[in-house]
Amino acid sequence: MLLSLLCRLVRWILSLQVVLVRPDLSKDIELLILRHENQVLRRQVHGRSRWDHADRLWLAALSRLVNRRQWSEIVPVTPATILRWHRNLAAHKRT
What is the pLDDT of residue 95? Predict the structure, then answer.
């Protein structure tokens, strides 16, 4: 419940930013995603990137603002991965 509320709050804040700062939005979102990805990669030098729950929440919230034509250039995961994260989160909440 708390995670859902937090996700909605982050989405609302980011959507408000979309309304206020429209011109260079895609560039700014790309920079935010790349900075966050760099933080994740710095935490672990070897192996695959491991996204914790806060990372997944941040990436999912920002990904809603990305133009779908530019998705593969900007977001480091596929839409299917974000959906899988959501399914896993929903499955854990039910158990």
Answer: 64
